[in-house]
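PT: before anyone asks, these are the final sequences, not the draft ones from last week. 504 residues across everything. Please model them as a single complex and drop the result in this thread when it's through.
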Amino acid sequence: MADKTKALAKLHSLDTERMHLERAAAVLRWDQETCLPAKGVEDRAEQLALIEGFAHEKLVNPETEGLLGELEDAGDLSAQEEDFLRVFRRDFRRAQRLSPEFVRECARAEGLSQAAWVEARKNSDFAVFAPHLEKMIALARKKSEYWGWAGTADSPYDGLLDIYEPGLGAADMAGVFYPLRERLSALLEKISAKAPALGAFLTGPQYDVQRQDAFCRELLGGLGFDFTRSRLDLSAHPFTTTLGFNDVRITTRYAAAEPLSGLFSVIHEGGHGFYELGIDPALRSSCLAEGTSMGIHESQSRLWENVIGRSRAFWEGWFPRFKEYFPQQLSGVGLDSFYRAMNRVSPSLIRVEADEVSYSLHIILRFELERRLFQGTLAVQDLPGAWNRAMEEYLGLRPACDAQGILQDVHWSMGAFGYFPSYALGNLYGLQFWEKLRECLPDTDAALGRRDYAAIHRWLGENIYRWGRRLEPSRLLLKITGKELSAEPFLRYIERKYTELYEL
Ligand code: ZN
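LR: through. Structure below.
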């Protein structure tokens, strides 16, 4: 046993060093997105490659392999150590099965592919991007095979989905996404027949961005965001990154003509931040000290952004204060009009501009196309046509050009196939958790009106945040709700909310 204790201690020390290196790389990446001068990118790319190489060596080396061998049937380990070994092994095997040459080939292809995508999107010319997309798909397929996914029509795609949502395959997702698609399309059709909420006060006047920022900081503080452990900065695309146990960074962007865009990004990223900041200190600087999956992460950001942040109860608490920041722009506007305007349903061609009802349809469309691409039943050259037909079928809109359609997202150019479903899963998990939370805390609406979030944080912290990666998504869901993944709670929420809002 003494040997095993020693082996485990050594493995922890390698793991901690790897996490520190990865987070040092994350600091450089955060800096690149928030303040790096344009000409600094070349050296930065080399610095990042070097540090990421060191982090990789900490994970994959003969010593690690030997230590894992020694701990094969360790026995007598605490539950936390068992979880650590399981997660560490998973990371190790994934990294080990990709040769350094293959990893370099992927990095090179990704660089070229992203540059081609930027060019193609600028000129709305899919043909420029198509050969790179073919290459990225071929590499992703190979990667999945190296990891051992083979033998069924969905194998390569399941292997990619598993990166972001361990344990959930394409068939599982299709089983909940298809009924979701039907019900959301039906709801959208009913809403389209009604007059849209007006809300000219949100689209006409200019909202000073400095005042927007001041309000967002006050709101974030009010929500319980700990500024001694985190920061809010500006970047072109909002994101959250963890740089240390007591250092989580979130970013947003503001536009004077769109006062709610920056605000909801702040609440969304804040939700990611709460999750990362709530992880059990006992997991500090280890591979367990992260959110358990992209879908669970999105459940937290979307819960705060949409379910809480776009609720009437929430704005009962904050609207008077928001009006004090923008008295002219909101002169004569009541809470009801404000609430209606922020929940206006208006199908858009662009995913990131989508409302709560149509958002998941954008995701299901991408999921279906990805699945067919990896099954080999859809060719890259036929992708724009398939995209446009699905857009018309699900949302009743047809893109006039590829930039507004197939070329709008960066994900595929980076080879991040299988990532999109996380967003829709986040909506579903979020409402499964929320139903349970409200059962345990029946006073929630009143608490939101009082701007009192303590009980919500406590519940989320105890049930979700603290576990980090110790519980895989399905186990976490089962432990909290006693159920498997289901679209019903989300549909109940969305149908109730919008039936009332649009008097359907
Ligand atoms: Zn997010």
